[in-house]
Every structure is written in C-alpha cells, then in structure tokens.
Task: inverse folding
C-alpha cells in the first residue's frame, strides 16, 4: 500500500522559493563551462523542490 501524500494547492507557494534558492546555492559553484553551470542550476532547483516537498510533508507530523 502506497503512503498518502497530503498536498494542497497552497503548498506550491513554498516550492518556487525553495527551487530558486536551490538553483542559486548550487549554481553558485564556480565551473568553467556554461553547460555545467546550467546543469548545476537545474539540479539545484530539483533538490530545492524535493526539500520543499519534505518540509510540506513533515509539517503536519511536527504540529
């Protein structure tokens, strides 16, 4: 049986800032090529969105 994910539309307000923060944090790593920089930004955005998902799912447990 799959675990249920409690996801509401207003939770999306957390995803965009977290994705931008991840892109800026990981994209700030100095690299030589532009393609590598863009790849790091994309990976950082995905990681930021995943962290936001974990935070959104953990908040009801903590309250």
Result:
């Amino acid at each position: 049986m799959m675990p249920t994910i409690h996801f509401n539309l207003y939770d999306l307000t957390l995803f965009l800032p977290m994705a931008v923060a991840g892109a800026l944090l990981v994209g700030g790593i100095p690299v030589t090529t532009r393609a590598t920089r863009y790849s790091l930004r994309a990976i950082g955005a995905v990681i930021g969105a995943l962290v936001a998902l974990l935070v959104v799912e953990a908040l009801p447990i903590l309250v």
